[in-house]
């Protein structure tokens, strides 16, 4: 029996449509609640019919494909900061969305919350309209309003122009970073090459710090419910379990479908021994360990040796550092899978190609990156809040 | 800001209306969820328009007045036992509704659940239709269906005839009990005289065992959210706190409104000292202690003395017995309120009249009843379940 | 099977004896742990043999009789403040003992802790010696030391002189307060007259604020394990339950033994309805309600009426005030016990005499005292701590 | 400040000594409480002076060296089953000691419990004597008794003869198993060769099922507090953390001291990634993975392939099976430590020798044993209880 479905109050839907119609700088945010509700079709229709810019949350990625022309992920900070009306579809104003507060948002931004849970409405912010109900059903209610009285947000508006320009410049900056030839590689180079080869229908599992955060901006999802990451609570150690679960599901439902599990080296350390399980049942998983010798930042092997010379590394190395040049790929070969030690873009392209082509064995690519590599410059510090 | 409201899925509403239309022996049950949702107007319209029999739960009493011609409380067991379609409006299938199971219900009865909480749908029974949403909003959705395609359940049906006959015979039996002249009085006599004098707009608070159960069948409510009893969890000791809270609310909102607090003697013992608070703030509360010298049953004073003669009452008296002829009214006079020791119908009439007339002081009527008094014969044992 | 007994390490006992021998201003504190361990005989021997001043904690009262010449309760603050060596026998440095910290104690006071629980040793303070073991067994170990090498603390020391003088002046101050003829009575007058008549072997139960604190200083215990009060956690509402339990024990073990339950009016309000239980089983309890119309302080009836004139007492009366002149004795007569409304020393003497003489019924004395009555001037505020 | 020490009651010590003197078949059990209390010297003196047989619990091993002539570990079941007096020194009657119940014990065996915790005395069994106190202090109290009135249990008694015979036959059976030449090796062969080379002062850490249970019987401890295993609650996953902690302690206190960590392959899977930490800080740990391809029992590689042929191994392999022939040693080499794949006694001897000789790197020996290998025949099933 499917779960019971509830809809929003008719008058509230009407009011929400009206607020959207009057928006100067509208933005839709698509959360994992929309994915769970199966709202992909209705949301796509709403976005395309009204020509509205949208932004997915980490696990809302793929509800509408990341490469949709109205997806403004590449201008995320800009979009959040200047929108005057934001509609949250099954997305909540937690730390991932900076709590809905300035300076990441306009102080007078109007939030419209679509959520299945009454207790979540009005958390953190005072919303302009609340739509309590199943996200799919409520999206259809909104569509009805825009069917009755059609309306489109003009693509030639200065808001759309701002967003498009920002996306262009951000994408250029990413591409610039991705094309750097210096070695070890940086995050963007790695993810650029990964993105190029990923099958459109694969599951993407990801956990880590920079690895998860930057990876999410480059690696695209095209299908709903095909991305699993550490999510709302940022729990490390879930990645390999997620990958195994996704592979078991895929095996029955869609044989041939691959699971790509993108792990930071520290994240991989939490449950790396699950590689034994992956090999035991020969699951169609490709593991990418993006290895910077630590959490956020590590040392290169020479600096590490230098430290040991001066005394006990226990004392001098920060606890976020891991052993430089760990050969995580051997944790895979230890159990009969394929392992690759990857230091250049060419090695990355080649080994990823082989891994995806070989459907008989799991594989692990241990991808060495610059230990001090970091994100491109950000407008805001992580977790920026007005009152901190 | 009022809480957000959700509605049921349109197709489910349509299906529910269709199940109701096809019912041979329909029944509506109105729970406290309907009271909280403010569904009184919509429910009354539905009941009257479709001519459907209804039953309130303890705290659903008054959503539609208890003396409404379509209220079948006086045929409660019969109504539950033979209905083929039951619509629950904010009422849940807990012990108060005998878990929705045979032999108290037909094995194939179709339940339609209207509830604000998804997790409550499908508890205990497999419902025919679930309507997830605010009870007031969902009732209006049902009304729309019956406005589009009007329908009435025939008052001349054999179901209505059965119910009317059973109500008649039950009411006659109650009246017969109420009119008994023997002393000490029985429960029905007491409640009959109380009911005769109660102001229509008073709050009724009640706790106890038989006192609460029988009192509920005789004392009528005419307004929603004006009855407070031990409710779903049957917690004893809440009565005087409820009465004080209701009195504080009434004082500001509707001066002159009275609170009638009907207590069993055992229930009163849990927090009887709150009489000091009532007197300290001179709250407009009339306390009725229906005193049978124990829980369910006690001893009369002579039997008690007899037991003491033969030894230590600690050893021989069951722990549910209380001291015979306790003068609870003196607990009220101790703090300056009025107290009445009531042994006859005449004394009851007179002292209640005085208490209601005197708006300057709280009062307590200690109403002595037959220690072995009990309910009239029941069709089922308490908490009957098929698998017990 | 009696619980297993452990003793302290021989060397620690030796060290403790040596610290005591070298004390300039020694003090023993006897806690309820000593009572539970049955250490009364050993402790009395130690006190008398070494001529050491001692102080009981609330439930340590009676381990050695309160009227023992070496009991320095009447100089409690002085004794705690200037002692240089303090031996705790089953007593813990919680709020009742002001956490063992200045300014209530010398900064360099040496504590010797005798306790059955290792985790309690060294709590709050760094003890000079810890004696882990059964309090009775450890006291005997100490006695052995003082048997081997006898030693006495000189009664003519300036410490004993200081303590004796302070006791004298405090006792004089109490007597002065007790003899005041003004009405309503004060706490000291009440407790003086109660103390005069109490049987030496009665149980004393007590709860309240000033009632418990002042009562404890005046009413004496002569037997171990015969005082029950709200104790370490100061939980109100336990008094009548304690009294009933003590009466049930006394009934079998020592018929004729009385239970005296001294209650503040607020404390009585927590479980006053238990009077019904007391009457039902005719328990040999004399209840004294020391009634000041509130918690710590109340209003007299005239001031209360004045407040009501100016508006709603709910708004103006502090929540610690109770209804003036409540007739708590009627809560007893309501259930057939004897009740006395007591306003003068003569009434108190007479009604207490009658209550103690009448072994056929429980009784309650509602003793009216001055609503603003308080303790005699104290050296320290309640719960004084150096860092507060 | 050292923790406070308590001693047992003198009379109880006397009674315990008397029960021991009158024992026909005495047995001492030395638990980890004895190790924590530092009772090694006193216990050794007691054992040798009175010539009493003793048995260590898993973490009591080494309090007296395992190769002491009075250690009857090799006749453990026999000793427990027929002893008439058992003295527990800091050992508790939990599942490891079969709850102290028949058929593993005589129904009328007399237990003497020495324990620091009163609540543990009398658990499961009714002891003959309880000695509440610090195990070291109480052992000394017992020694005093046997100093005052010397006593020895005769080595020529039939109980000592029985034990010596059983030890001889059990040791012969173990030696027989250890000397089997068939491959893959069995547990006894592996542990025999490990025991031969272990430094006397090393820490031994162990976790697993058969690996821990059988290993404990063969690998000897010579020093107190030098064995760490999954202990009372049998928690898997603690081994590598224990080993790292022991290595950190050893580094400072006794450089050159080695940590030997004996792991079952399943146990290693819980936290095998900690090998990275071991290598990062270059800790002096030798890891032995005793690999039978599963928990209790696994499959060999050929049987596993056979299963895969017939379908999905997910479906057919029991969940306790692990991937056959996993190369756990590569998990070590992945991080720069030394790894050995060991299939024969000769390889085991050689690689263990190299690992112990090389103080510059941690190492891991992946020791392949017969997947169906098990313990030698046991008198009782695991966790035998009379009432199961």
UniProtKB/TrEMBL annotation, chains A, B, C, D:
Keywords: Lyase, Magnesium, Metal-binding, Thiamine pyrophosphate. Gene3D superfamilies: 3.40.50.970, TPP-binding domain. The keyword Lyase applies. The lineage of its organism: Eukaryota, Metazoa, Chordata, Craniata, Vertebrata. PANTHER family: 2-HYDROXYACYL-COA LYASE, 2-HYDROXYACYL-COA LYASE 1. InterPro entries: DHS-like_NAD/FAD-binding_dom, HACL1-like, THDP-binding, Thiamin_PyroP_enz_cen_dom, TPP_enzyme_TPP-bd. Its cofactor is thiamine diphosphate. Its EC number is 4.1.2.63. GO terms for molecular function: 2-hydroxyacyl-CoA lyase activity; magnesium ion binding; thiamine pyrophosphate binding. It is an enzyme of class 4 (lyase). This is 2-hydroxyacyl-CoA lyase. GO terms for cellular component: peroxisome. GO terms for biological process: fatty acid alpha-oxidation.
């Amino acid at each position: 029996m499917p779960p019971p479905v509830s809809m929003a109050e008719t008058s509230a839907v009407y009011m929400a449509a009206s607020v959207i119609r009057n928006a100067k700088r509208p933005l839709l945010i698509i959360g994992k609640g929309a994915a769970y509700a199966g709202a992909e079709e209705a949301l796509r229709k709403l976005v395309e019919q009204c020509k509205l810019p949208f932004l997915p949350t980490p696990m809302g990625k793929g509800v509408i494909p990341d490469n949709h022309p109205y997806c403004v992920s590449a201008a995320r900070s800009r979009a959040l900061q200047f929108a005057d009306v934001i509609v949250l579809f099954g997305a909540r104003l937690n730390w991932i969305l900076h709590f809905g507060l300035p300076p990441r948002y306009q102080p007078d931004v109007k939030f419209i919350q679509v959520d299945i849970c009454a207790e979540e409405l009005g958390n953190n912010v005072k919303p302009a309209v609340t739509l309590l109900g199943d996200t799919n059903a409520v999206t259809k209610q909104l569509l009805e309003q825009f069917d009755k009285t059609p309306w489109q947000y003009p693509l030639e508006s200065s808001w759309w122009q701002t967003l498009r320009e920002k996306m262009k410049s951000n994408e250029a900056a990413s591409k610039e970073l991705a094309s750097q030839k210096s070695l070890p590689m940086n995050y963007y180079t790695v993810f650029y090459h990964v993105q190029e080869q990923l099958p459109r229908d694969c599951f993407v599992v990801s956990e880590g710090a920079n690895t998860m955060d930057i990876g999410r901006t480059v690696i695209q999802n095209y299908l709903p419910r095909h991305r699993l990451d550490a999510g709302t609570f940022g729990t490390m150690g879930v990645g390999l379990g997620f990958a195994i679960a996704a592979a078991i599901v895929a095996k029955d439902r869609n044989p041939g479908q691959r699971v790509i599990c993108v792990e930071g080296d520290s994240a991989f350390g939490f449950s790396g021994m699950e590689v034994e399980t992956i090999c035991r049942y020969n699951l169609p998983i490709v593991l990418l360990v993006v290895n910077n010798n630590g959490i956020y930042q590590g040392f290169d092997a020479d600096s590490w040796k230098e430290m040991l010379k001066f005394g006990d590394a226990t004392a001098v190395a920060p606890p976020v550092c891991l052993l430089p040049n760990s050969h995580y790929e051997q944790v895979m070969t230890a159990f009969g899978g394929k392992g690759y030690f990857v230091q250049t873009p060419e090695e990355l392209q080649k080994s990823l190609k082989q891994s995806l082509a070989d459907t008989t064995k799991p594989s692990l690519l241990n991808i060495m990156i610059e230990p001090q590599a970091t994100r491109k410059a950000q407008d805001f510090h992580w977790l920026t809040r007005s009152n901190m």
